[in-house]
């Protein structure tokens, strides 16, 4: 089975990217706008509520949040050209942009909070689209609905006595706990540093980008 040889760098990368998204989402929720920016399901539901209340200002803003997430995914697809995870693709480029977008979010947040979170949404869209598949598995690092569904399915299969690839299940748990720990980290650091806590995911993605470029160039 492919997943029995799942490389450790993929597991670590998935954990760190999920942790990054967990930090960004929590800080989006606990800043002035209480806005989720790592996934769009709730925002689309909020758009429907705003539409029913004819709240045009909120409708426009939620539309822009969703659009920026989509544009982030668009740029990731344009840069990489493929969503299958493979060492040798230019993942350092979108990682650099993710770090830059989070940094811009931090810069603008004290002055233009709504505009600032649009950059955060674009960063999450770009990150989420970087890797969608690895040898048949769907990998998402900015939201957990699919991850938790896959964990539940795997546990159900185990209960029936069916075989489940352990490393595939481990990957899903790493994403789940990475997102969770990221939320804890963001909450603690936000308490002490306020919006400057946004610098932590910006630095994390910058370090991931540098590390990947080093491995990429060394491999070349």
From TrEMBL:
Which keywords, in A-to-Z order, does the entry hold?
Membrane, Transmembrane, Transmembrane helix
Q: Kindly indicate whether the keyword Flavoprotein belongs to this entry.
A: no
Q: Give TM regions.
A: 12-37, 57-80, 92-112, 137-158, 170-192, 198-217
Q: Which InterPro entries match?
A: DUF1275 (IPR010699)
Q: What is this protein called?
A: DUF1275 family protein
Naturally occurring in which organism (per UniProt):
Acinetobacter populi
